[in-house]
């Protein structure tokens, strides 16, 4: 390999690293601004100024403010799903896995940044249809897999999977919105209530004990 070609590749690698670092910094600054000011009141110039960049740097990575918010939203959801999945994987059985994941999800909904951006600002910034589609794309499959595992293991009676997933998805959406809207002092109690109630509702689908083995 020629020296010129090697140096060209090094320069390209450095540009890529710089571009990735700039994008990460923009996402962090945008997350702070959107959480503090809301989507409507956040200006792209302020986000750029927070990392000593130009507005053009934002447009290099994102088409507009909505695209930037969508990237923030997706990162928050991917992080939440990764934490929930890790909690599920650490469990000993599918039932425990599902409720470890649920506990992590509800705890994330209590977080002021996640709660505000995902559940409050998300429908405003993206529009309800796009926000709902994004939630289904990011979270629906994970919920469906947990329920499928419960049915396959015999810990839930076999039910129509799509319908069951849709109902549980609706319960989690209601929980997320309620926790995001609640006062900070009320969140621990509300979280405990949702955890217990969702457990009871899903638990109603567990097989009845066989009297012959009681």
Shape: elongated
- Tell me the series of helices and strands, N- to C-terminal: HHHHHHHHH
Number of helices: 9
User: How many angstroms does the end-to-end distance come to?
Assistant: 75 Å
* Rg of Cα set: 22 Å
- The total strand number stands at 0
What is the strand content? under 5%
**Amount of helix:** over 70%
Structural class: mainly alpha
Mean pLDDT: 91
Q: Provide the low-confidence segments as ranges.
A: none
Largest sheet: none
Question: How is this fold's topology laid out?
Answer:
Layout: H1 3-37, H2 44-50, H3 55-61, H4 65-89, H5 94-110, H6 112-126, H7 128-152, H8 161-181, H9 187-203
Give an overview in words.
The protein is mainly alpha-helical and 214 residues long. The protein contains nine helices and no strands. The protein has helices spanning 3-37, 44-50, 55-61, 65-89, 94-110, 112-126, 128-152, 161-181, 187-203. The model has no long low-confidence stretch (mean pLDDT 91).
Keywords:
214 residues, mainly alpha, 0% strand, elongated
Summarize the structure.
The protein is an all-alpha fold and 214 residues long.
């Amino acid at each position: 390999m020629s020296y010129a070609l090697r140096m060209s590749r090094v320069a390209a690698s450095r540009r890529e690293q710089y571009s990735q670092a700039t994008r990460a910094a923009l996402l962090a600054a945008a997350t702070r601004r959107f959480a503090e000011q809301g989507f409507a009141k956040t200006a792209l110039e302020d986000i750029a100024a927070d990392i000593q960049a130009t507005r053009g740097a934002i447009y290099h990575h994102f088409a507009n403010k909505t695209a930037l918010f969508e990237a923030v939203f997706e990162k928050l959801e991917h992080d939440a799903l990764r934490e929930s999945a890790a909690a599920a994987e650490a469990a000993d059985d599918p039932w425990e896995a599902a409720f470890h994941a649920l506990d992590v999800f509800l705890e994330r909904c209590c977080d002021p940044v996640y709660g505000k951006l995902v559940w409050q600002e998300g429908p405003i910034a993206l529009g309800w249809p796009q926000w709902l589609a994004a939630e289904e794309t990011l979270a629906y499959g994970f919920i469906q897999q947990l329920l499928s595992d419960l049915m396959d293991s015999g810990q839930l009676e076999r039910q129509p999977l799509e319908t069951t997933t849709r109902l549980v998805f609706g319960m989690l959406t209601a929980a997320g919105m309620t926790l995001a809207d609640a006062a900070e002092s009320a969140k621990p109690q509300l979280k405990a209530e949702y955890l217990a109630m969702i457990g009871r509702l899903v638990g109603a689908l567990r097989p009845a004990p066989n009297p012959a083995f009681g």
